[in-house]
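Section 5.1 Outputs to date
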Amino acid sequence: MGQLLWIGCLESDEEFERKASKGYDLASAQTSQKNLLFGIEQESKMTADSINGSVLPPFPIYKDKDVEPVIWSHANGSYDVSVGYRNDKYVNRLNCRKSMISEVRKWYKERYAGGELAVFTYSMRSAPMAAACKIKRMIPNVKLYLIVTDLPAFMDMGQSKMKALLKRIDWKSIQRMQLQFDGFVLYTEKMAEYLRIPEKKWVLMEGSYDVSETINIKSIHKEKAIMYSGKLDKQYGINMLLDAFMQIEDPELELWLTGGGNAEEYIRECAQRDKRIKFYGFIPSRKEVLNKQKRASVLINMRLPSEAASDYSFPSKLFEYMGSGTPVLSFRLGGIPKEYYPYLYPVEEETMPCLIRKIKEVLNASCEERNRMGTRAGNYITNEKNINKQCRKILNFCNL
């Protein structure tokens, strides 16, 4: 039957909340990995071990200088570890990489049973990729699969000159390691062209949705509110959203914002000027965020078409947005397949007047019409993009 190994940045639920309280904010990566890992296990009837390295901001942005290792079990019989490392600026990623490679050696000695092994590596980062490549050197017939959610060139943009230099060096290392992988799970089609991956070595899979999070929206009290949850960075159009909202003269309408990022200062300034703006910051409890999404009138995806990564990134937030049963407003992006747009309210132009018009148009629609749109989107994401269907797609590609 063989074995499965997951290499990524997964945390136990308890550890995720603890790290979130200290400055860790990759909630989308946590949810995405849990969905994929559990789905792969359900569809393959196998239990995986996991080796993980937290993607933390350096000390003192993240409160701990020394990240302690954490061992847990996500399923009966599994061994899961989030490695410890020194969280110093500029070298924290290198330290994490060394710790993950060390943990791989330990796993090989203590957990590898011999025979077939499939390794799923989450995200195109050097630490998990290096750990997977180390296994390849120890077990030449292992099958390595890389799940590419985003391209490194379009992550952590706007950094210092030193970090930009380190990133260029890191990219060369990633390109060399890419050659060691047997297959790729890509979140957008254009990634294959950018990474020069042959057609038969990749499969498109934008993410997955956990149907257990779906509830009947008719039982939820709706409030007159637009909601954005996720990364609050200026490059994602947060300033445009705030400016557009403040031009809509409706004293009953509110704007709810959850998450964190470099637009926080501007959000607080706007909230002082316009009391309808409610900034909740980063909310560690996923249940609380989902409940807010279900109570809102409209959810908005503010990734912009002009953003450099728009063709190479699928906004994973769309899955929980659409699954909430609340109608979703989004700009048209190259990274969103055309099949999604019948279930979204698309913003056709990247201008503030167009955004304002679209928000008003959706809010002026009847509650029944908005509910119909939200229900159609929820049914689509539940039936077509659920964990089991998406993970079966991956396993079929991997011949597992």
